[in-house]
Amino acid sequence: MPRSSLKSAAPPDWLRTAVFYQIYPQSFADSNGDGIGDLPGIISKLPYLKELGITAIWLNPIFESPFRDAGYDISDFRKVAPRYGSNQDAVQLFQAAHQLGMRVVLDLVAGHTSDEHPWFVEAAADTRSPYRSRYLFTGAEPQTPMFGDAIPKTPQGEHYVANFLPFQPALNFGYNQPDPERTWQLAPGDPACLAMREELREIMRFWLDLGCDGFRVDMASSLIKGETDRAALQGLWQDFRTWLDSSYPEAVLIAEWSNPMDAIEAGYHVDFMIHFGEPAYTYLVGCPAEVAVQGQVPSMFFDRAGGGDIRLFVENYLKHYSATSGRGYISLPTGNHDFHRPRRGREFADLRVLYAMLLTMPGVPFIYYGDEIGMRNLEGIPEKEGSMWRTGDRTPMQWEKGAPNLGFSKSNPRDLYLSLDPAVDAPTVSEQLADPDSLLHFTRSLIALRRTHSALGNDGHFRPLLAEQGDCPFVYERCDDSGKYLIAIHPADTERTVELPELLGATLLLAEGAEHTGSRLCLDGVSFAVFKLQR
Ligand code: NOJ
C-alpha cells in the first residue's frame, strides 16, 4: 500500500524553541516523606527547571498501576496513582508550569494495559464481555512476549498477545494483513479496532481537557501488528494528528519510535533516536547489551579511546534529518529511563563535550533528570518494579549535599524507592549551583546559547563539514537567516589540529580545550568549540 503523505498544520510555536526535561516521577522529589517522588514534589522544583532554561517537561507514567513495569503497566488511564498524588495535583502541576511558561507532556501507554486492568480482567473471565475485542486473545496458541520468559496466559488458561512483558496484554488496534485462520486478527478498519482507537482518543481528550500539553507515546510503532509496511500504522497516527491539529492545536505528539522518517510521516511532531531502532544514537553513546542488535554494541564516538566512527552516525542521522526537516523534529536526548546514563569521565569533561553536541544539534533536546549534574549510573543495586538492566539510571535525584537522602526525601533511607548514590562526591544541585564552573551551570549556558542564537536551535539547518573515522573531531554547521555557526566536537583523548577555511573571521562563542588562529583550530583531548561565522 502506498504511503499517504500527511498535510499537517505547523507545529505549535512553543515547540520551535522547546527544551525538554524528562522526569521519572518516582525518583525526582518526594514531598510527603514516603520515599517515593510525587507531583507536589515536582511542582516545588519547577522554579529550578525554569532557571535551567527548561521550557517543557515529559513525565513518565503517573497513572494507577500495579507497578510491575514501573507504571508502564496501567490499570486506570484516567487516574493518577495515589503514590504520586491525585488528579487535582496533576491539574495543579499543569497550571503551575503554565504560569512559569512551561509545558507538561504525559506518557501515553497506547499499546497495552496491565493484566490487572479491569478491562482485561473482565475480558479474560467472560468471553461475552464488551472488552473482549480490546485485546488479542489467541486461545490455545501461545505467543512469545518481547521481553520476559513466561508465555502470557490468563488465569482461565487462555493465551494472548503481550506487547512488551508477559503481563502487558496488547490492545487491539488491528492487524495489517489479518490471517483468516486466526480470528483474533482483525483489520485496522474493523469496528472493534476503531472503537479501541476512539477509547484512546477519549483518554487523550481527558488529560488534554485537564490541561496537559501533549503526549510522549510509548512504543508508538507497536499498535498495529503483522505489518508488512507502515501504511496502516501511519494512517492511525495521522488520524490522531489531524484531530489534534483541529481540536488541540497547541498539543504535541512525541514518538518513542526511533525511526523519525516513519514517525514524522505518521504525524508525530517529534521522534526520539535512541538505543533501539535506527542506529544513529548508538553510534554516539552505545546502547545496553540487552537491547543491542544481535548482541553487537557498536563502538561509540563519545569515547576517549577514539575508536568510534562518526560517519556511521552522520549517514544514518542525515537520512532521517533530510527526510523530516521542516516537517518534524528528531530528538537526541542526554539519556532516558531505559538506558545507562552517559559516562562522565574525569571532571565531567566527557559529559560537557557530549552536551555541547546534543544541545547544538537541530531538533528538540531532552535532558533526563539528573544528567544536568552528571548523576552516575549506579551499578549493583537490586531491581525494582521490573527495572531489569535499567535500575541504575532511575535512582533518586540528588538535590542537596549533606541533607538526609541528599534532599530527595525525608523518609527513612530504608524506604527510598531506590537507593541513592552513596559516593562521597555524589554530585548535587546545591553544590553545583554554588560553583560557576559546574556541569549544571555549563548545561544552563548551553541552553541559553541555543536560545540566544536561533540558528543553533530546533529549526536551524544542519550540515556536516568534517566527519572522519577515528579520533578526529566532528565539525558541523548550523544556520538560518540570522547567521551561520560552526561547532567542533572532539571526544577523543588526543590533540588534533584541523584547517577549517570557514573559521576565517569567526567569533568564538563557547569552547573548552580549543584555540583558533585564522582558519586553524587546535583541539586538546576531550574538547569542543562553538563559533559564529562571519558569513
Ligand atoms: C518503553 C518504555 O520506555 C519502557 O520503560 C517500558 O518498559 C516499555 N516501553 C513498555 O511499556
Please give a handful of descriptors for the protein shown.
535 residues, alpha/beta, 8-stranded parallel β-sheet, 6-stranded antiparallel β-sheet, 13 helices, 18 strands, 25% helix, globular, binds 1-deoxynojirimycin
Explain what you see.
The protein starts with 12 loop residues before the first helix and ends with a strand. The chain is globular and about 75 Å long. Helix 11 (349-358) runs parallel beside helix 13. Strand 17 (507-517) and strand 18 form a beta hairpin. The chain is an alpha/beta fold. 25% of the residues lie in helices and 17% in strands. The model has no long low-confidence stretch (mean pLDDT 95). The strands form four sheets. It has an eight-stranded parallel β-sheet with strand order 11-10-9-8-5-2-1-12. Strands 13, 14, 15, 16, 17 and 18 form a six-stranded antiparallel β-sheet that branches. The site of 1-deoxynojirimycin has 9 residues, from loops.
